[in-house]
Amino acid sequence: MFVTNGSRMPASRSPSWFPRSRACAFAGDDKEPSARILMAACEFSFAFARAIRYRRGMKLYRFRYSPYARKVQMMLELAGLRHEVVEVRYGEREELAQLTGGYFHVPVLVLDDGEVVTESRRICERLAGHPEARHLVPAPLHAAVWAFHDFIEGPVEDVLFRIASPAVRAKWPTAWERALYTLIKERKFGVGCVDAWDAARPELIQRARSVLEPARQTLAAQRFVFGDAPTLADVALYGQWAMLEAEAPELLDQISPVFVAHARRVEQARPSR
Asked: What is the CATH number of the domain that holds 92?
């Protein structure tokens, strides 16, 4: 699919900025030397247009604190895949809704060919198919890596987002965004939930330590979850670390300094540009 001026069209059609020449149709008669020259010129032109489009890379729409978006961003970075990060205003999601046909959650990833992919697990599955990213889900560890990924985005995320939410709300620059954030959380978790999580921070941190203790022991003994190289398991953890550090850097250290060190190792594993 192409995305041109916000509209989508099949990849088999030329985008509006690259009109198809009438010569291409004429060039179908390859018996004439001039036709073959025109055909070659057409093929070169379309190949050049595709190359320009691919050089633009992918586009990731995120909130700065979203563990799911930060996970996808780190996966792109560790794979060395060209991309642009678009910071979405919390209370302004018109572009997201238009891009996706009504879906307004993050992350959203626009692929090189203009295809729009939503939901972080689906995005990671697509990225894992790229040759540059296959080392993040090595075949012998496929089941273990995805199982750990899903564990992090289940019981681990369930406690860490409660720890982070009061700080996230406090950092929104407008009263409207803070009110909207509170409303969305309260519709799912009950009136006063964010204030209650703020008051219960010590208990929540202790709960996080408990659920993450096996990971802490592993990361105290080795660089990454499955050895000396990062995998999607580390990327999933990093998304959670980034959520905590985005608004209140001290929170991750309060859970364990081991996790702070792990976050820095993941960042340092990114290929140099």
From this structure: 3.40.30.10
